UniProtKB/TrEMBL annotation:
Alphabetized UniProt keyword annotations: 2Fe-2S, Iron, Iron-sulfur, Metal-binding
Naturally occurring in which organism (per UniProt): Cupriavidus pampae
UniProt-listed Gene3D superfamilies: Glutaredoxin, NADH-quinone oxidoreductase subunit E
Family: Belongs to the complex I 24 kDa subunit family.
A Pfam family per the record: 2Fe-2S_thioredx
Protein name per Swiss-Prot or TrEMBL: Formate dehydrogenase subunit gamma
PROSITE patterns per UniProt: COMPLEX1_24K
Stored NCBIfam families: PRK05988.1
Length: 188
């Protein structure tokens, strides 16, 4: 049976097409701005991730063509470096240091606790989109490990209890924000 198209679905499709076109334009501008510099691939990937929060899949052929690389070469660099994401991150990015100094003071146990607490594995995002859990290899806090970075804030000497408190604080803040939003919507 053919799909029935409603005005609402037409509007959503048009909006999606416009946003995809805008994203491609933004990608093309970023690539064009850096394509002639020596070693342009990494700066382009960093800029794309800074702007979009991840490296969109549709950027790979644009980058490959502009830099005269194969798509496989571009994809290989994206997947080699843990810093680059191929999908949007959660609202909060939680990075646990996996370097040797932090491992020597309990980072492995902290990773297991983080996975249990958040309900997702490393390199994954929670089902509600609230948290992305990532490994990071040295936050420069070796003397006060295990170290964790949540969004752009460093935390040292993080044990399971402290990790739980940090996450619960973020969850409480998100609940309060949602309650405020709901109250505003109800008053309108």
């Amino acid at each position: 049976m053919p799909e029935t198209v409603t005005p609402t679905s037409n509007l959503a499709a048009a909006s999606s097409t416009v946003s995809a076109a805008r994203r491609l334009d933004a990608i093309a501008q970023i690539v064009a701005a850096s394509r002639d510099m020596p070693g342009a691939l990494l700066p382009i990937l960093h800029e794309l991730q800074d702007v979009h929060g991840y490296v969109p899949a549709e950027s790979v052929p644009v980058i490959a063509q502009a830099l005269n690389l194969s798509r496989a070469e571009v994809h290989g660099v994206i997947t080699f470096y843990h810093h680059f994401r191929e999908h949007p991150a959660g609202r909060h990015v939680v990075q646990v240091c996996r370097a040797e100094a932090c491992q020597s003071v309990g980072a492995d146990a902290l990773v297991k606790h983080a996975e249990r607490t958040l309900g997702c594995s490393m390199h994954d995002t929670t089902a509600d989109g609230a948290f992305t859990l990532e490994p990071v290899f040295c936050l420069g806090q070796c003397a006060i490990g295990p170290a964790v970075m949540i969004d752009d804030r460093l935390h040292g000497r993080v044990d399971a209890a402290r990790f739980t408190r940090l996450i619960e604080g973020l969850r409480d803040a998100m609940r309060a924000e949602q309650n405020n939003k709901n109250a505003v919507e109800a008053s309108v």
